[in-house]
Amino acid sequence: MSVLTIEPGANPADEEPPDTGERHRLTAVTGLAALSLDAMASVAYGPEAIVLVLAAAGAHGLGFTLPVTLAIAGLLAVLVASYRQVIAAFPDGGGSYAVARTHLGARTSLVAAASLVLDYVLNVAVAVTAGVAALTSAFPALYDDRLWLCLGVLVLVTAVNLRGIVESARVFIVPTVVFVGSVFVLMVFGLLRSGPASTASADGHASVLADDATTVGALLLLKAFASGCAALTGVEAIANAVPSFRVPRARRAQRAEVALGAVLGVMLIGLSVLIGRFHLQPVEGVTVLAQLADASLGHNWAFYVIQFATMILLALSANTSFGGLPVLLKLLARDNYLPHVFALKADRQVHRHGVLALALVSAALLVFSGGDTNTLVPLFAIGVFVGFTVAQVGMVRHWFLERGGRWRGKALLNGFGAVLTGAATVVVTLEKFREGAWLVVIALPLLVAAFGAVHRAYGRIGERLGLGRIPEPPHRERSLVIVPVSSLSRLTSEALTAAASLGDEVRAVTVCYPDPEDRAATHALERSWAAWNPGVELVRLPCERRSLGRPIAAYVRGVGAAESATRVTVLIPEAEPERLWQRLLQNQRGAVVAHAVRRETDAVICRLRFRLL
């Protein structure tokens, strides 16, 4: 027997023996592509969310777009710095859940986990519907089929992620580069212009500026700040999925986090500068990003390239959830808050059950919303802000406990971020409550309660199994093997041979029915059994009803009660057909017997597969 030891001070996440699975993990570049699509795509609706709120104050209110965006960019810098510290302190992933579990207690960690689960699921639904909405805007004839288009995109993204996170990252590198490159080209050309090149996209569309403009007050600016913070969704995804990176995992994840913050911040500020430069106003039916592309590049092929790239990236930004949520579910399963099946990995380092669960719940949301983005958006972003706040509060406690160099400055940074994200959480929840945010407010505690129920169930199971305690040494007991039979065949011979090899005593049982035809079949079996004389007793089990499993289970239960010192095994012989479709030809008697014995007795069940080659 060998024992694995880890030297003091070693980091098991960064100092791992080389294995072939490393090639199925992420580099800093592929990690940025696989896990940042949500954040990158948010520039398509983040600035617009700010503009729509400030439009309540008319043209004067729109002048505050850049200051609000700078505040959001400042918060982004705080979050990136914070999550960079989270990655270093918690290299096993989990983000705010891992931080809260260590420093804020189990209950708070479950709140963080539940908020992340809700955010990830909603991100998939919102991303897919937004991408399809861009498509149907370009091709109105597809509008009535938007639900099927949404489900088709979801199936495509799910299939790519079942291939492995590295394969999905490689697929998404190209659209990410095209989108980011297009936005930067848009910003450069826009800054070189003194006026808009075109306004064709907005012509003929009604402005949404308020006729009775309100004054620009602190509440309006706070609402604009909270709405614009939707652009920060996805910032935490890299910290949640650190185990998906190649070694050294923490350093690669930190590089990806910093690169994400830098690119996202530049894009948000650049687009806000252009909004003020061109004096853009929000109009119905046309996105702010489309107006910026029109004003900077003109209404030509470049305009359509940006629209198409935006559509693709919005649809595929669901990949952020597929990269982060399965890792979070694995950590919850490891801590006994979810079924352990979510901790299992398939080949290519895929948490397949987490991917499939995310796809199924997202599909249900798509069906519920009918593929409509506006139905889902009010539910979005609340969960991620709860996670942001919990993570920052936990990191403040982390620095007070760990101390270290410049710990006061780090704690102050995290505390300031917690105040900002906490305020954003309250404002967004209150503002969107009647529009559907109440559903998240209800779902969050229900999900926490479900985690707790699973944890208690595993606790009871562990207590019954004696987990953590040294069990009694194994000992040999007398073994009785019971073999259900209905006729004589080579399968019967193989079953009795296997049973004789397993137990001290073997009994064959057959169920007898009162119908004349069945009595004749039973007598024929008894005569054939006597002529064969296998040295095994054949026990008849009379049954008035046409039941197969219950009489056998009742007999096994009776034997167990009468011979308590005997270990009873039921060996069920079954033919394994050569072709898969030939299984439809079988009568499924073995499955019926196995189900009844498992449900009604404590006997060991052994299913003998006889291959028909």
Please describe what this structure looks like:
The N terminus is likely disordered. The protein is an alpha/beta fold. The protein starts with 27 loop residues before the first helix and ends with a strand. Helix content is 62%, strand content 7%. Helix 15 packs across helix 16. It is built from 23 helices and five strands. Strands 3-2-1-4-5 form a five-stranded parallel sheet, with helices on both faces. Strand 2, helix 21 and strand 3 form a beta-alpha-beta unit.
Strand arrangement, major sheet: 3-2-1-4-5
Structural class: alpha/beta
> Biggest sheet: strands, sense, closure?
5 strands, parallel
Count the DSSP helices.
23
Question: What Rg is obtained from the alpha carbons, in whole angstroms?
Answer: 32 Å
Which ranges are low-confidence, i.e. pLDDT below 50, for 5 or more consecutive residues?
1-20
N- to C-terminal distance: 40 Å
Large-scale geometry = elongated
Task: Work out the strand percent.
Answer: 5-15%
Mean pLDDT figure = 80
- Helix fraction by DSSP (H/I, runs of at least 4): 55-70%
